[in-house]
Specification:
ornithine cyclodeaminase, domain 1, NAD(P)-bd_dom_sf, eight-stranded parallel beta sheet, 335 residues, Rossmann fold, Ornithine cyclodeaminase, alpha/beta
Length: 335
């Protein structure tokens, strides 16, 4: 019988490969074009909610990339209070498979990939939907994805002003200081969502709420604003869509999948305020050139991305190719 091996890539292994933010943005934008051109197989996410007193849940994401001939599954935990144990709130593993034989190819630490592909999705969305002259960024949240949101957005827009906040003063102060050091520019740490968002050109809501709370209000959205909300529990005012000209999603079916509590616009969906007719486009159709993105400077555009398995697989596949070339990681006997 043929001996089967698979490659295990830890976070430390990935760190040795020299992967840049631009590499991750390119991988995400490329696979979004594949979405728009029907070159992926994309299954709905599911949730596993353990009997753990509400400490957290797992997301299971599945997909296949036809152009790259790789299939895969990601399991990622979402445990809000992990900071109390010195752990990330989101930790993940990605399994990559050969779609011709079903043979497992790799086990990849998906924690950095989850954070980075989320930031890359925000950045790609802004590239196509924000005003090119956007100068002020307002960001709620200091979770792992927040770093990649701000750094990758700034690599495109080179903001004059960056404002950040989060629920805990110690987390927002540390986040602001780390960003300022990385970006070489001042970062304004704010105490409230209103101070952070009001009048910003680009707004990102990546909060870690336990119960819905209207942190983002419609009066914050001025003509030309671009808003990206993706907190697991909604932080949007219920009637916020009244102030939005265009709604773009990563995938309409995915917007409706999973537990009905989870998702930034779930209350709007549940109340019938967000319907398929209200959605301008999926981002893949815009990246592929099949639908327009921003059409004039005064449009107020909301981009809701819940996370596509295909972006995880695209980034993991890019990393695996580099690891194979460098013979990085550990080869494990499968059978």
């Amino acid at each position: 019988m043929t001996r089967v091996w698979l490659r295990y890539l830890s976070g430390a292994d990935i760190d040795t490969l020299g992967v840049t933010g631009a590499d991750i943005v390119d991988a995400v934008e490329d696979v979004l074009a594949d979405h728009g051109n029907d070159r992926v197989v994309f299954e709905p996410r599911t949730h596993l909610v353990p009997d753990n007193g509400g400490k957290g849940h797992f997301n299971i994401l599945r997909g296949h990339l036809s152009e790259k001939q790789v299939s895969g599954v990601k399991v990622v935990g979402d445990f809000v209070t992990n900071f109390e144990r010195g752990l990330p709130s989101e930790m993940a593993l990605i399994l990559l498979f050969d779609p011709e034989t079903g043979m497992p190819r790799a086990i990849v630490d998906g924690t950095m990939i989850t954070d980075a592909r989320t930031g890359a999705m925000t950045a790609v969305g802004a590239k196509h939907l924000a005003r090119p002259d956007s100068r002020v960024l307002g960001h709620i949240g200091a979770r792992g994805t927040a770093w990649w949101n701000v750094v990758l957005l700034d690599s495109i827009f080179d903001f004059d002003e960056i404002r950040v906040t989060s629920k805990r003063p110690e987390s927002r102060e540390a986040f602001g200081a780390k960003l300022a050091e990385q970006l070489g520019k001042p970062v304004r740490v704010c105490a409230t969502a209103e101070e952070t968002l009001d009048g910003a050109d680009i707004m990102v809501e990546a909060s870690r709420l336990i119960e819905p709370e209207p942190l983002v209000r419609k009066e914050f959205l001025r003509p030309g604003t671009f808003l990206v909300p993706y907190g697991t529990i909604s932080a949007l005012e219920l009637d916020l869509l009244d102030a939005v000209d265009k709604v773009v999603v990563d995938n309409w079916r995915e917007s409706q999948s999973g537990n009905p509590r989870f998702g930034a616009l779930r209350p709007q969906l549940n109340a019938g305020l967000l319907t398929e007719d209200r959605v301008h486009a999926e981002i893949g159709d815009i990246v592929a050139g099949h639908r327009p993105g921003r059409e004039h400077d005064t449009e107020r555009i909301l981009f809701w991305h819940r996370g596509l398995s295909t972006t995880d697989l695209a980034v993991a596949h890019m990393i695996l190719a580099r690891a194979e070339a460098a013979d990085a990681g550990i080869m494990l006997p499968y059978r």
